[in-house]
Design a protein that fits this description.
The protein is mainly alpha-helical. It contains 3 helices and no strands.
């Protein structure tokens, strides 16, 4: 897996992923009141955190997008 996520993209994914997980599990937002929405937000947050950690996004590969410098 060749990295295709740059530093800024990686930081944004990590922050947004953590925020989604925390809001879904600890927040009291109306649109996350339904269990399906809550667990969907957790799933998306975990995927964002994992892609930031591995510096690889499968969707970017399919679309041919790279936000990191070519090494």
């Amino acid at each position: 897996m060749t990295p295709n996520i740059g530093t800024l993209d990686r930081a944004a994914r990590a922050i947004l992923g953590a925020a989604l997980v925390l809001l879904a599990l600890a927040g009291d937002l109306a649109f996350l009141a339904a269990p399906a929405m809550k667990w969907a937000a957790v799933a998306v947050g975990v995927v964002l955190i994992l892609t930031a950690g591995f510096r690889f996004c499968p969707l970017y590969r399919v679309l041919g997008v790279r936000t990191c410098r070519i090494q």
